[in-house]
Amino acid sequence: MEQPVPACKEVVPTDTDYLWIEGIPFPTAVCQNLTSLREEFVVKDEDVIILSYPKSGTNWLVEILSLIHTKGDPSWVQSVPIYHRSPWLESEIWVEEIKKHPPEKCPRYYSSHLPIHLFPKSFFNSKAKIIYLIRNPRDVITSGYHFWKAMKIVKNPESFEQYFHWFLQGNVVYGSWFDHIRGWLTMRGKENFLIVTYEDLSQDIRGRIEVISQFLGKKLNPEELNSVLENASFQVMKDNKMSNFSQLPDYIIDHSKGQLLRKGITGDWKNHFTVAQSETFDKIYQEKMAGLPQKLFPWE
Ligand code: A3P
After folding, report:
1. Which of 65, 125, 161, 194 sits between 20 and 30 A of 222, alpha carbons compared?
2. CA–centroid distance, residue 225 to ligand 1 (Å)
3. Residues forming a β-bridge with 47
4. How many domains does the chain have?
5. What is the mean pLDDT of the chain?
6. Is the pTM above the cut of 0.85?
7. Whose CA is closest to atom 2 on ligand 1?
């Protein structure tokens, strides 16, 4: 049965309309009460949390987890919108949905873009599992530029060049990509924290699904695995109205200007960056990622 999209507040997307927490702007339509969330939200040991910086392939991962949960049966992803299968922790409407999740339908799945220092403190004393999805930041910029210019709940970039600079300055919703990654990477090596990259998913989806299933303690037979692969593919997701955001109301997104499932490839940044932008990016990347181990990510 189709479920309605929770109503969000309509906002004028300017800097002053954002919710600012410790210098980071959050879109008020989908983020509220973040300070009390950090102090009060109770993470349960059984929870499975999909964490990412926006535009890293978050919804792809939600689709994969939904299908692993049903052992490849597509009926859940075909009947329940993606934001009800894994609601957003930052939104007070959806956090209520998370809290009301029937205990017999364990685990609770939920998604978040929060940086580590704003994440609910109770997580850090729990056995809850986080899958942290990371994507080449050049492709995050590219995907973000196309997506944010269609969204009515954030300040829209006027040009790629403008968005490129906002991103490098961390002057974007959910803050700096570099801070997000550096913050969450401190969890690397913990047994309840799995890092997955968009690039690895693209190159070896079968292998990654096996790793994710194992992390979640689920075993899929070859037929179930094939069904996960097929139903989480770009084209099947793009055609699935429960997963492609086509049912988001017009006051959140201008569907004529952009869509969630745009290209679904790695390296599209090469079609967008100028040589000068590429050089600027490389320089800032080196500076901001200094001190982290070399060759941590597939794009390095
Ligand atoms: P592009 O804009 O580069 O196409 P998020 O869910 O974090 O907002 O990320 C959206 C990005 O993930 C988009 O990237 C989208 O196309 C990509 N994506 C979503 N589902 C996908 C899938 N099944 N296969 C490959 N990429 C997918």
Report:
1. 194
2. 20
3. none
4. 1
5. 94
6. yes
7. 143
